Amino acid sequence: MKLNYDPTTDMLHISFGRGVEVEGFDLCDGVVVHLDAEEHVAGIEIENASARVDLEELQAVAMGSNRR
Hints:
By secondary structure, this protein is of the alpha+beta class. 18% of the residues lie in helices and 40% in strands. The chain has two helices and five strands. Strands 1-2-5-4-3 form a five-stranded antiparallel sheet. The mean pLDDT is 86.
């Protein structure tokens, strides 16, 4: 899994390392699920991420920390 946060757009993209993202659909307002060619979840994109996700906790998880 790979996390990519862009603070200039406040967009978080979570990639699951599956194939190329070829299709996407809105799960809800501001959350898009991306599928690969075999319709497996390949990624999730979250708009206004700082209001929806605890970015500090996410960073700790991404770095392999067990802080809570």
